[in-house]
Amino acid sequence: MKLSLIAQSIGGQIIGNSDVEIKGVKEIGQAQKGDLAFLLHPRYLSFLKTTRASAIIVGVDFSGNFPTMVKVANPYRALVQVAELFAPPKTSFPQGIHPTSILGKGAVVSPQASVGPFVFVGEGASIGPQSQIYPFVYIGRNCKVGRGTTIFPQVYLGDGCEVGDGVIIHSGAVVGSDGFGFMREGGSYRKIPQIGRVVVGDEVEIGANVTIDRSTLGVTKIGRGTKLDNLVHIGHNVQVGENTAIVAQVGISGSTTIGRGVRIAGQAGLAGHIQIGDNSTIGAQAGVTKSVPAGSFVSGYPARPHQLAKKIAACGAKLPDLFKKVKELEETMRKLEERIDEQATEDG
Fold first, then answer.
1. 41, 98, 233, 236: which is the annotated catalytic residue?
2. 328 lies in which domain range?
């Protein structure tokens, strides 16, 4: 499409050739003729000299030069808008139930829903209108899937789980598997029945191979608008607030409560039975063993206020030199003690 149409759709101002044809969107370092690129951070300024992009999108305060630019108030937002313009259409199935799928007794599927090949829908389950269920999905007994939800192939929804409206669940996710509950008895482990369920709020996105355990007795809950990256594990009885973002490989132990607007970076681990306050940030690979007050930023292991954690890390980097210095001081002290002993013997 012409650059002028793109600029109009994102509210941008063109500096240069408004008639240039744009065929796709690429990173500035990989863009070729016909591509639209973005300058999102000063660290990429050097690419202005080498990129072959036909046009770039920059912030309104950008003062550099490029033959054709589109200036916008928020380049990140513009990136999302342009990506939506060029995104390929998703695979879709006709409304209705594919003949190879299996519906249990009393299952209700809206006529406006699409259920693809080889889907299993357990007895008493329901699927709302405009929802799309891809092939090889398992939906257990008495599950509820809301309106406009997309469930990609090979997702498992355990019995009694509830998924809200506008939810996206990516391939391989397991929602409602048994929580890790065992009682030590006579040198072995006795399984504690996990008879609760999982409730996923509206507009949640669950990444590939995420696992969310059902609660022991009550509800494991994922709040509205929360986003879970791939390979996140959420233990039984965990409560996650609205609009929280959890990055890949995070592990959250059972009965932990996470507030609204929390951000948890990759590979962080959270102990059980703690509370993470609203609008907190947990750094990558942090080990959180205690509750975190609202608005905090913690990192490191064990997790501490981020500024303190950075100072401790900086001191740790100096330990080899400090160890060497201590050994030198010990040697100096040893020699001084020998001289003192020799002098005392001579004076004696």
1. 236
2. 318-348
